[in-house]
Amino acid sequence: MRVFLAGAAGAVGHPLVARLLAEGHTVVGTTRDEARARTLRAQGAEAAVLDAFDAAALRAAVLAAEPEVVIHQLTALPAQADPKLMAAALALTNRLRRETVPTLLSAATEAGARRAVVQSIAFVTRPDGRPVHDEDAPLYLDAPEQFRDNVAAVRDLEAATAGAAGIEGLVLRYGFYYGPGTWYAKDGTMGELIRKRRYPIIGSGEGRMSFVHLDDAVTATVRALDHGTPGVYNITDDTPATSREWVPEAARLLGAKAPRKVPAWLARRLAGDALVYYSTTLPGNANGRARAALNWAPRPWRDGFAEVFG
Fold first, then answer.
1. Could you tell me which of 68, 121, 152, 239 has the fewest CB atoms within 10 Å of its CB?
2. Helices 83-111, 55-65: inter-axial angle, 10-degree rounding
3. How many C-beta atoms lie closer than 10 Å to residue 84's C-beta?
4. 3-class secondary structure, 22
5. Which residues, 6+ apart, have CB-to-CB distance to 257 below 8 Å?
């Protein structure tokens, strides 16, 4: 199968290229960087060097590739979660979601592609007292200002995917990635913060994180090439983890001291509403739709954490 992958050098894109090639697919991957293009070619993929915001260049690359399936994995998130970089990185990621998804879908339809698989995020549904949400829960469009535009950008990309004519659009709402090369790894930002006791349990610690190992996210993406019907799928593991569960477990595996506990009012004053929300209120995500439609079985986060942090 010929696959056009927009964002072939990112957190999911890089291992996804390797998996697609290993399974015998032909891959055309985009990157802005010629050095990364050489890496893609060395792997056995074709490379298209372009600025994704250049609609004409992106369209031309898709038409030249003549893909059966296009995959959108474009983000601008840094390798490490540096607070000084995050606001600009999130703003650019929101632009990528809004502006490049419609271009890619239009070009894919023009090129005769049958399917588009588009990256989204799972942790954007409005809290309503339920601990776990499925894909039909409403988006949190009135979220705290720090991440309100993230939710709006998700709304826009998902609407563009659902509304695309002449192509099957699947949205994969990934959970919080963990594993090598992510923030949630021994040498990742969260691993370092937990090791230094700088990632506390805030308030009740009842916020639920729906994790997904990077390898499992890649597997789900490959399955989406020819499994499932158009729609939205949560790509998360089976059991959302509360902050009071997963932070101490990561600390134990890292050989670190137990995390500190910080009242919500103090954390809000020091770090803002978003972090407090994630730690105290965030709903988890149900993955039953993806498990059934994609014939997919992610590892439990406790097992995965033992591999990654142990």
1. 239
2. 50
3. 7
4. helix
5. 197, 251
* Residues 176/212, Cβ–Cβ less than 8 Å: yes
HSE-up (13 A, CA, CB side) for residue 202: 23
Q: What is residue 241's DSSP assignment?
A: E
The model's pLDDT over 30-43, given as tens digits with 9 standing for 90+, comes to 999 999 999 999 99
End-to-end CA distance of the chain: 38
CATH number of 2-181+212-237+285-299: 3.40.50.720
> Tokens at residue 129, please?
């007292």
Quote the CA–CA distance of 215 and 227 in Å, as a whole number.
18
Determine phi and psi for 168, rounding to 5 degrees. Answer: -85, 120
Alpha-carbon distances of 61 from 27, 30, 103, 111, rounded to whole Å: 12, 9, 11, 10
Rounded Cα distance between 5 and 29, Å, is 5
Residue type, 287: N
Half-sphere exposure of 72 (CA within 13 A, CB side): 33
Question: In this structure, what DSSP letter does residue 173 have?
Answer: E
pLDDT at 274 (0 to 100):
86
Distances (CA, A) of 63 to 36, 103, 109, 110, 111: 22, 12, 9, 7, 5
Query: Any idea how long the chain is?
Result: 310
Domain ranges of the chain: 2-181+212-237+285-299
Specify the DSSP element, H or E, that contains 69.
strand 69-72
Cα separations (Å) of 86 from 7, 75, 80, 146? 19, 12, 9, 11
Q: Which secondary structure element, helix H or strand E, spans residue 37, and what is its range?
A: helix 34-43
Q: Which residue has the tokens 């399955």?
A: 223
* Digit-coded pLDDT (tens) for 162-187: 999 999 999 999 999 999 999 999 99
